[in-house]
Amino acid sequence: MFRAAVDIQPACLGLYCGRTVLSVNGSVETYGDCGVCPRGQRTDDNKICRECLGSPDRYDWLYLGFMAMLPLVLHWFFIEWYSGKKSSSALLQHLTALLECSVAAVVTLLLSDPVGSLHIRSCRVKKLSDWYTMLYNPSPDYITTVHCTHEAVYPLYTIVFIYYAFCLVLMMLLRPLLVKKIACGLGRSDRFKSIYAALYFFPILTVLQAVGGGLLYYAFPYIILVLSLVTLAVYLSASEVEFFKDLLVRKKRLVVLFSHWLLHAYGIISISKLDKLEQDLPLLALVPAPALFYLMTAKYTEPSRILSEGGNGH
Length: 314
What we know:
Layout: H1 2-7, E1 18-25, E2 28-35, E3 41-43, E4 49-51, H2 58-83, H3 90-111, H4 158-182, H5 193-238, H6 244-249, H7 251-272, H8 277-280, H9 289-297, H10 303-313
Antiparallel strand pairs: 1-2, 3-4
Helix pairs in contact: 2-3, 2-4, 2-5, 3-4, 4-5, 5-7
């Protein structure tokens, strides 16, 4: 009898509007009015709000890892940029930044549902519009808008904001004390510049996630590959590395090279998702290829050599 009453209810309009389950009596469910689903739920094919009980798949974790790496890489870049060549404090600052981001990631996971566990439950991402439910609020009479905005990709959207907040708090608690004690070789105004830089890039990362989270979700593997290739080429060129022996002169160059190789591998794994190991794992052999290609061809593109050969030709 109740099911018949439910069937004659007006259709639930909107791509992300649904009816919440008010009560369950055996196999019969009582539904509420059409509207926004509670946090941690999304609509099924019948426009009923269902709790998300799944776990993030491998690609979801790779996306979260990418978003977690962004502030860490930026921390390391600005620490290196402002620490100076003779500063012995750079390594400790690098380790402190790694500690801050690692602790922030663990705390974020522990506070996510289920609380106290490193595992999280999530809703499955089906399409790009899942990230932008605020754009799909229906207006049945073209006057009144039914607001059905909710996190259909729970918790992939908001968990990044929580992580950035913890990163910022931990940085403000730990880094100033460390820099004040160990950065004696730097000027009073220079020693805190890496921290000031973080106060700029954290809001930028937050806006980037808020506006482009869905686009980043689908594009991040290609972003990693392109940026890592470009930055590696720029670094090798700026460091005047032309031969393999030039990499061995300073250990820092090897660290930068291996870091870029790790990013290459991360991008390849994110694209392939390692669904078929026998086909995808051999792709990792391509990781050193860009650096090897650069080292083998750099001597042929040396500006002074090109100019000298051009002069001899005339």
